[in-house]
């Protein structure tokens, strides 16, 4: 009778695992992902080994490919750094896409109107600062409503993405339209473009500096400690005398400001113009980067590069083996799913009915 009532298996919280076991589980998840990724390749009549080789060749085999891969990784890393303090605080900022877009809008305004009157370096500095302020203010709106009326930040920040995209769509076909009827904003002049360092725009230097700054901010400052306390327990934070509403708004402004800087780097270092899809899903993909890295700033570098390798390699896979773009997306999705699933097994374990009895008897 007890066997009927007892579930076949149940979940239990694991005791803290050693670092070796944690990384063994993560490595195992990657192996499983690579095996599962063979299935769509076999279904399309291609060799999985050749396909994986093409992905690596297309992203890392030549200097020009490496540069393109780094370009993809820069906004991913920057945006993951932006949302990390929010997630540490248990404020689910899903609006990085919109914050990137509004930062790009601010930078574009100065690029279009002052490129001929302001010298190169001061113009870039103004674009940088204005993008940070615009992105921060855009993020501050849902933060204020959360602090004041405890609104749902997930829905609020998500909906604001579409407002930002709508604003750019209006600018494309309205005040900032270049040639009449083109629905295109003019390309930036050279004075509004980021200089290149080692063949890639200097945004990679900016994001690496942000990695160090975010690590120090989160782990060595009073503000970082307050973020951690609010994330653990809002009541504890209030009992300790913290102004929770202020912590929320301050953290979101910083998050939005960094996202705005990412928008500046995209329009000034990669695209050289603004369009409504300027964020290109970076705000959503960076959530995966942040979670897979466990909000560790330095781990984000590796995760961002891995996703950039997959994205760049998938493009090569599509052209060289004539594989549909959807297949490349499926392989990427399988890898991300398995890596996220590994975090579940790091924190929880399955206990089956028979095994539970043996553990109790022992």
From TrEMBL:
> Which cell locations does it reside in?
Cell membrane
Amino-acid biosynthesis as UniProt keyword = no
Select a single GO molecular function from the record's annotations and give it. transmembrane transporter activity
Q: Where are the transmembrane segments?
A: 23-43, 64-85, 91-114, 121-143, 155-173, 194-217, 252-275, 287-310, 330-348
UniProt KW keywords: Cell membrane, Membrane, Transmembrane, Transmembrane helix
Q: What is its main location?
A: membrane
The way it spans or sits in the membrane comes to: Multi-pass membrane protein
Record protein name field: ABC transporter permease
